[in-house]
């Protein structure tokens, strides 16, 4: 007795193609030999696969609905086979012969180009306040001779004779399930469905050529070492006239003679003679903004202003290693605001004294009662990280 493919899949005669596919997927997951090796289950899986072969093909389904023999339409007959792709769809969802769930059929010659990465060396002031630079980039550009098509002028691609424009061919293999038909990219046209008999001489059919071009890049204020600025669509042009990738400009900040950067703060050290540290003084310090006057390429930072120096008041009795924080004179932040300038003081003790200087210092020591100092012995100062470590270790 001939079995009804609708009954085997458990769908009505007016079921849509999507309903039929869902029913097949559900049964295939339950009955596949890798899941259930029982011989009776394998026989039922064959019936389900053959039923789906009939109902998933509009011509076969129409012939069966008109009274045709399901076995005659490949439902139970040997040698008709079924698509291995449909089994893969049942387990992995997707309606594709290829990976990633892409649609079946010829693939486009136009593909997105690769991203590109270049390094840009900037000064600390340029990184802090922004800069506009012109960069010369060697990259792939659209071939002007063929406008990215890859064909010689006056010619066009022709349909592949092997796959007849489908971009894929069926490979049939025998198994215990019968004949399994697998779709693979056509080797003759590499899956494009067409071939280029007369490629462009300038690009050899790739649709792009390598050339040098000049780009104007605006680096925002506040970038730091390793920051990458993305230029959308300025990377490699894709094959076949495809869209360009992105260009990433990686910032490398050159060392500065006066300042070092920690986050958005600038640090510098000023060295004072011991007399100035003891008596106090006022110093005029250069700010990072002073570099802008010496740089012709530096951009105009929003907070750069026109002030290039700062008057630092050194209090009497300033100790070596002490710090003064000057608010708002650091590096502008990419998110707004600005860091601080941290000035460290180092007291310079003289190593050579003439007789008069030595006499004066000895007189000062006598006045202060420091001729034979005892010295103060104490535990060494611990850094913040040292204190945190001792806290975790219970010390």
UniProtKB/TrEMBL annotation:
<dbReference type="InterPro" id="IPR036410">
    <property type="entry name" value="HSP_DnaJ_Cys-rich_dom_sf"/>
</dbReference>
<keyword id="KW-0235">DNA replication</keyword>
<feature type="repeat" description="CXXCXGXG motif">
    <location>
        <begin position="200"/>
        <end position="207"/>
    </location>
</feature>
<keyword id="KW-0963">Cytoplasm</keyword>
<keyword id="KW-0143">Chaperone</keyword>
<dbReference type="InterPro" id="IPR012724">
    <property type="entry name" value="DnaJ"/>
</dbReference>
<dbReference type="InterPro" id="IPR001305">
    <property type="entry name" value="HSP_DnaJ_Cys-rich_dom"/>
</dbReference>
<dbReference type="InterPro" id="IPR001623">
    <property type="entry name" value="DnaJ_domain"/>
</dbReference>
<comment type="similarity">
    <text>Belongs to the DnaJ family.</text>
</comment>
<feature type="binding site">
    <location>
        <position position="189"/>
    </location>
    <ligand>
        <name>Zn(2+) 2</name>
    </ligand>
</feature>
<feature type="repeat" description="CXXCXGXG motif">
    <location>
        <begin position="160"/>
        <end position="167"/>
    </location>
</feature>
<protein>
    <recommendedName>
        <fullName>Chaperone protein DnaJ</fullName>
    </recommendedName>
</protein>
<feature type="binding site">
    <location>
        <position position="200"/>
    </location>
    <ligand>
        <name>Zn(2+) 1</name>
    </ligand>
</feature>
<keyword id="KW-0677">Repeat</keyword>
<dbReference type="InterPro" id="IPR002939">
    <property type="entry name" value="DnaJ_C"/>
</dbReference>
<feature type="domain" description="CR-type">
    <location>
        <begin position="130"/>
        <end position="212"/>
    </location>
</feature>
<dbReference type="Pfam" id="PF01556">
    <property type="entry name" value="DnaJ_C"/>
</dbReference>
<feature type="binding site">
    <location>
        <position position="143"/>
    </location>
    <ligand>
        <name>Zn(2+) 1</name>
    </ligand>
</feature>
<comment type="subunit">
    <text>Homodimer.</text>
</comment>
<dbReference type="InterPro" id="IPR036869">
    <property type="entry name" value="J_dom_sf"/>
</dbReference>
<comment type="function">
    <text>Participates actively in the response to hyperosmotic and heat shock by preventing the aggregation of stress-denatured proteins and by disaggregating proteins, also in an autonomous, DnaK-independent fashion. Unfolded proteins bind initially to DnaJ; upon interaction with the DnaJ-bound protein, DnaK hydrolyzes its bound ATP, resulting in the formation of a stable complex. GrpE releases ADP from DnaK; ATP binding to DnaK triggers the release of the substrate protein, thus completing the reaction cycle.</text>
</comment>
<feature type="binding site">
    <location>
        <position position="146"/>
    </location>
    <ligand>
        <name>Zn(2+) 1</name>
    </ligand>
</feature>
<feature type="binding site">
    <location>
        <position position="186"/>
    </location>
    <ligand>
        <name>Zn(2+) 2</name>
    </ligand>
</feature>
<dbReference type="Pfam" id="PF00226">
    <property type="entry name" value="DnaJ"/>
</dbReference>
<keyword id="KW-0479">Metal-binding</keyword>
<feature type="binding site">
    <location>
        <position position="203"/>
    </location>
    <ligand>
        <name>Zn(2+) 1</name>
    </ligand>
</feature>
<feature type="zinc finger region" description="CR-type">
    <location>
        <begin position="130"/>
        <end position="212"/>
    </location>
</feature>
<feature type="repeat" description="CXXCXGXG motif">
    <location>
        <begin position="143"/>
        <end position="150"/>
    </location>
</feature>
<keyword id="KW-0346">Stress response</keyword>
<feature type="repeat" description="CXXCXGXG motif">
    <location>
        <begin position="186"/>
        <end position="193"/>
    </location>
</feature>
<feature type="binding site">
    <location>
        <position position="163"/>
    </location>
    <ligand>
        <name>Zn(2+) 2</name>
    </ligand>
</feature>
<feature type="binding site">
    <location>
        <position position="160"/>
    </location>
    <ligand>
        <name>Zn(2+) 2</name>
    </ligand>
</feature>
<dbReference type="Pfam" id="PF00684">
    <property type="entry name" value="DnaJ_CXXCXGXG"/>
</dbReference>
<feature type="domain" description="J">
    <location>
        <begin position="4"/>
        <end position="68"/>
    </location>
</feature>
<dbReference type="InterPro" id="IPR008971">
    <property type="entry name" value="HSP40/DnaJ_pept-bd"/>
</dbReference>
<keyword id="KW-0863">Zinc-finger</keyword>
<dbReference type="InterPro" id="IPR018253">
    <property type="entry name" value="DnaJ_domain_CS"/>
</dbReference>
<keyword id="KW-0862">Zinc</keyword>
């Amino acid at each position: 007795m001939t079995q009804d493919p609708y009954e085997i899949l458990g769908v009505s005669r007016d079921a849509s193609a999507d309903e039929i596919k869902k029913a097949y997927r559900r049964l295939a997951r339950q009955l596949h030999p890798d899941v259930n090796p029982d011989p009776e289950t394998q026989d039922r899986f064959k019936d389900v696969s053959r039923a789906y072969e009939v109902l998933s093909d509009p011509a076969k389904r129409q012939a069966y609905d008109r009274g045709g023999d399901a076995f005659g339409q490949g439902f139970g007959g040997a040698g008709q086979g079924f698509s291995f792709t449909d089994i893969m769809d049942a387990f992995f969802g997707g309606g594709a012969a290829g990976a990633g769930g892409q649609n079946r059929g010829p693939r486009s010659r136009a593909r997105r180009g690769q991203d590109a990465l270049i390094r840009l060396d900037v000064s600390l002031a340029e990184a802090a306040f922004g800069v506009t630079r012109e960069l010369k980039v060697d990259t792939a550009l659209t071939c002007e001779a063929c406008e990215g098509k890859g064909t010689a002028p006056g010619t066009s691609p022709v349909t592949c004779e092997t796959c007849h424009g489908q971009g894929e061919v069926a490979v049939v293999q025998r198994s215990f399930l019968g004949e399994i038909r697998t779709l693979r990219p056509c080797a003759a046209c590499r899956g494009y469905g067409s071939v280029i008999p007369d490629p462009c001489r300038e690009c050899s059919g790739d649709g792009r050529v390598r050339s040098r071009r000049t780009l104007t890049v605006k680096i925002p204020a506040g970038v730091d070492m390793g920051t990458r600025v993305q230029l959308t669509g300025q990377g490699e042009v894709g094959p076949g006239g495809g869209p360009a990738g992105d260009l990433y400009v990686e910032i490398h900040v050159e060392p500065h003679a006066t300042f070092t950067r920690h986050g958005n703060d600038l640090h510098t050290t000023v060295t004072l003679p011991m007399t100035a540290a003891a008596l106090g003084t006022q110093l005029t310090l250069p700010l990072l903004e002073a570099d802008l006057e010496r740089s012709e390429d530096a951009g105009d930072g929003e907070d750069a202003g026109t002030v290039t120096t700062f008057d630092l008041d050194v209090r009497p009795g300033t100790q070596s290693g002490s710090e003064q924080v000057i608010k708002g004179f650091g590096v502008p932040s990419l998110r707004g605001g600005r860091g601080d300038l941290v000035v460290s003081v180092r007291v310079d003790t003289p190593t050579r004294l003439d007789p008069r200087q030595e006499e004066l210092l000895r007189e000062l020591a006598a006045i202060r009662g420091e001729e034979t100092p005892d010295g103060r012995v104490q535990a060494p100062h611990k850094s913040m990280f040292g204190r945190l470590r001792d806290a975790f270790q219970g010390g």
